[in-house]
Amino acid sequence: MAKVIKLGFLGCGNIGGGVYHLLTEMHDEILKRENIDIQIKSALVKSIAEARTDIPKDIMTESADDVLTDPSIDIICEFMGGEQPAASFMQRALENGKTVVTANKMALALNWHKLQAAASAHGAGLYYEASVGGVIPVIRSLTVSLDADEIDQVMGIVNGTTNYILTQMSQQGRSYADVLAEAQKLGLAEPNPTADVEGYDAAYKLSILSSIAFHTRVTYQKIHREGITNISPDDIAYGREMGYTLKLLAIGKRAADSIEVRVHPTFLPNEHPLARVDGSLNAIYIHGRYCQDMMLQGRGAGDKPTASAICGDILYAATHMDNPTVPSFANTAEPDDAITFTDNWVCRYFIRLDAADTPGVLGSVASAFSAKSISIASLLQRPAADGRAQIILITHEASECAVQDALATLNPEIVRVESMIRVES
Hints:
Layout: E1 3-10, H1 14-25, H2 27-34, E2 36-44, E3 60-61, H3 65-68, E4 75-78, H4 86-95, E5 99-102, H5 105-121, E6 126-127, H6 138-145, E7 151-157, H7 160-172, H8 176-185, H9 194-197, H10 200-214, E8 224-225, H11 233-241, E9 244-255, E10 258-269, E11 281-288, E12 292-299, H12 303-318, E13 340-341, E14 346-356, H13 361-370, E15 376-383, E16 388-395, E17 398-399, H14 400-408, E18 415-423
Parallel strand pairs: 1-2, 1-4, 2-3, 4-5, 5-6, 8-10, 10-13, 10-18
Antiparallel strand pairs: 7-9, 7-11, 9-10, 11-12, 14-16, 14-17, 14-18, 15-16
Helix pairs in contact: 1-2, 1-12, 4-5, 5-10, 7-8
């Protein structure tokens, strides 16, 4: 006899609808392959009268209790988005002993310790493969396939909106504002794009990804975050001339008990695998002591790719109801006291300066860097209007504090810092 698993949905928009249709279309195949009969019992919506028409009305409800407290429901799938009330609803579901599947990176990153504690206390599962990288199976790769390895770096393009914008700016030389407006028309960017373009979305994902990779809690508050709103076509063009491609990266590195986690625009050498990931694709590069270099790439958003990852979690949960997977670290509200988080990371730097086109200016710039033990690896100088010049340089590896200190010593009446972008290799 087939094992019956009943689902409850919290929300039924694009992602919920995608999951409903995938499970409906694959029902008989799943039954045949896994001997599991998946049934969707109820779906919470804001208004039944205004709900989507491709989902049966008889499973819809406007009461969260109909989903959260129904004793026949085994797994609850959260599709609401945002932190609240999604996090509170998931916690209630877990406290009722129901396994939860979610793609909600914000609610998870900010409330993970509470949700995991509720899951563990009540013997429930908590699964979130789709919260980072969409259809890319990076979480299960880290928690299962690479669990015995020592991962020291995760670096990824984890936001499709910003990758699309930077790709178009790079390939077509267009302005940020122009490409953003196009992305909004295409549905690739939200009407309010702040979460994407200012790096919040990527920072939530990095909190989850780095916690799993480094086997210790990395809270969202520890992540340095910068967005792409101040990136100009000039930055991208000069970087390309010097052999680099610009991406918004989520970067996590661990050395012994020191961790750095940061989200910001980053220049990569054109030959780097991540530099060739264009459009709205996501990709995550991993380096470990034994696995060495590897990269996972795929669709990071959209109803079908996300539904695929969510349904994978549903099937995994359905076959592990008596033995739910738990994180390999102490999932606490604050990081382990033994771990230090540094904001003085070491990398190379792309710096664009607007300078007076007079003798001695370049020497003063070199002196400012030399005083902080920073050496220059490559340099371009281009004439600009009104007796000014553009000086573009890339440093050798230097510490963040040293670079910031050097830039602060420049006289803004003679040399003005137009941009400073970190470079990874």
